[in-house]
């Protein structure tokens, strides 16, 4: 592939040329993507600003028509788009196709939600007045997405933006620009008017991001990525009081109480922990198991973890693909070594390997974990499960909450009243109760504390793209 930028309905080369895109499973170059910068971003914003006038004037039904066609096209291309995800970022093919389906579901969901952007009337305190409240699209949106869900993070942002009447400039993760190019092709094929969706790929994130933040025509930034970059965007946004939605890092706890169905807890924890090789912000990162079932849980968890195959995501038998790059690998290795140095016991795994510039890590389980270990404080983003023993529900909730993050959390219990108290006690935006994979298009996704601002998905997911206007009318 040798791809271009998509600006104002045209495919354009970038002034700075191109940059290589690598398959993380074998280190081979898949192709090159256009290396857009400040100039092209500015051009894309101008196109989006221009298109906003007519796009926002369409009816919600008309916009829904485009989104439904995009949904149809994405489902039609599910296999091709899935293969591209595996090639660009390494997740196993079945998981990649699942991501495409998940990505498409946001197009369908928000096509409908766009029709439900209701206003209201408010009783006035004077007989000579009428008061009403309406919702209008915020304007041009800058969307910045990461590499770990190359397709779904785009649609989760772009679908509600388009449905509400906003126009978009997208900067995708530099490791995965091709999925974004395919998305732009779908926009074109669906007949989306020029300038409504624009794509600026590039390897200088701060240059493209900088223009999106500085350009006054961009009214809203929606970002998924690290807390560190989210913090920077907040600082930059303070100048113009830029509207911000931030989906940032997580450090998800998993609590297994002593009345849990252990098999269910093991299955749910395996699904949460090892999905995408542990490279999602909602992956279980620290497992707290109550003492009565600690040994049984670890034994069963180990048996399941050891059955997961590591390798190239295109191979049928593979459950865990490569880590995204050397930096990702080194972080995982550092976390495991630090835990072992501080007294953790290795249950299985504990090592990785490099092959032709690709980095793999075996599914790893550690026990005798304490909070002195880095792995209990930092997001690992790898297939490592540290297990700590707890004695009570309260201790589990206290340890779970002892983190600056608050995105996803999980717990397992069959007891309704215990479970309700735990669910209410967790300072997290998402709680999976006997459920390791809670994400869904119709549910709000987002974090408390340093995990972010705002929600994506659900009926909440369209709100960040709307401004409220109160109209007071004298009669
Ligand atoms: P990750 O660890 O997922 O790569 P990052 O926060 O580094 O998280 O990246 C998420 C997205 O943010 C990517 O598209 C990346 O290019 C972009 N990004 C990184 N640095 C900046 C920046 N200074 N300004 C704007 N976007 C940035």
From TrEMBL:
Reading the lineage from the top rank, the first entry is: Bacteria
Molecular function per GO:
succinate-semialdehyde dehydrogenase (NAD+) activity
Name its GO BP terms in alphabetical order.
Answer: gamma-aminobutyric acid catabolic process
Q: Does the keyword Transferase apply?
A: no
> What is any Pfam family matched here?
Aldedh
- Asked whether the keyword Lyase is assigned, the reply is no
Tell me where in this chain the Aldehyde dehydrogenase domain is found: 11-471
The UniProt keyword set, sorted, is: Oxidoreductase
Family, according to the entry, reads as follows: Belongs to the aldehyde dehydrogenase family.
Q: Which PANTHER family does UniProt cross-reference here?
A: SUCCINATE-SEMIALDEHYDE DEHYDROGENASE, MITOCHONDRIAL
What protein name is recorded for this chain? Succinate semialdehyde dehydrogenase
Q: Which organism is it from?
A: Alteribacillus bidgolensis
């Amino acid at each position: 592939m040798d791809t271009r930028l998509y600006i104002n309905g045209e495919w354009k080369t970038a002034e700075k040329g191109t940059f290589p895109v690598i398959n993380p499973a074998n280190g081979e170059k898949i192709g090159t993507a256009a290396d857009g910068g400040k100039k092209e971003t500015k051009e894309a914003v101008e196109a989006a600003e221009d298109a906003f006038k007519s796009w926002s004037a369409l009816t919600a039904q008309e916009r829904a028509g485009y989104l439904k066609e995009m949904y149809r096209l994405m489902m039609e291309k599910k296999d091709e788009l899935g293969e591209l995800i595996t090639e660009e970022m390494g997740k196993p093919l079945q998981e990649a196709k699942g991501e495409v389906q998940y990505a498409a579901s946001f197009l369908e969901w928000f096509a409908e939600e766009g029709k439900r952007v209701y206003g209201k009337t408010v009783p006035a305190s004077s007989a000579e007045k009428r008061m009403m409240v309406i919702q209008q699209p915020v304007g041009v949106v800058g969307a910045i997405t990461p590499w770990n869900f190359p397709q779904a993070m785009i649609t989760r942002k772009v679908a509600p933006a388009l449905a509400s009447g906003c126009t978009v400039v997208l900067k995708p993760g530099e490791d995965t620009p091709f999925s974004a190019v395919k998305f732009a092709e779908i926009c074109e094929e669906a007949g989306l008017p020029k300038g409504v969706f624009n794509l600026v790929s590039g390897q200088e994130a701060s240059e493209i991001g900088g223009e999106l933040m500085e350009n006054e025509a961009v009214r809203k930034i929606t970002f998924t990525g690290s807390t560190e970059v989210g913090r920077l965007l907040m600082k930059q946004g303070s100048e113009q009081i830029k509207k911000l939605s931030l989906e940032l890092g997580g450090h998800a706890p998993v609590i297994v109480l002593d009345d849990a169905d252990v098999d269910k807890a093991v299955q749910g924890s395996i699904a949460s922990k090892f999905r995408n090789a542990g490279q999602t912000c909602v992956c279980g990162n620290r497992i707290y198991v109550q003492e009565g079932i600690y040994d049984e849980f670890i034994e069963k968890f180990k048996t399941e973890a050891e059955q997961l195959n590591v390798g190239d995501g295109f191979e049928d038998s593979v459950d865990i693909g490569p880590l995204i790059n050397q930096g990702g690998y080194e972080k995982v290795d550092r976390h495991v070594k630090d835990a072992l140095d501080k007294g953790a016991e290795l249950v299985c795994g504990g090592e990785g390997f490099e092959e032709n510039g690709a980095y793999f890590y075996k599914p790893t389980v550690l026990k005798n974990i304490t909070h002195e270990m880095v792995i209990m404080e930092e997001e690992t983003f790898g297939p490592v499960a540290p297990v700590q023993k707890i004695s009570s529900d309260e201790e589990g909730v206290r340890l779970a909450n002892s983190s600056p993050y608050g995105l996803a959390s999980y717990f397992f219990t069959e007891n309704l009243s215990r479970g309700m108290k735990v669910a209410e006690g967790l300072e997290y935006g998402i709680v999976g109760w006997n459920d390791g994979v809670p994400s869904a298009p119709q549910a709000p996704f987002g974090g408390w504390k340093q995990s972010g601002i705002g929600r994506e998905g659900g009926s909440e997911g369209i709100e960040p793209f709307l401004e409220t206007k109160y109209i007071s009318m004298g009669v």
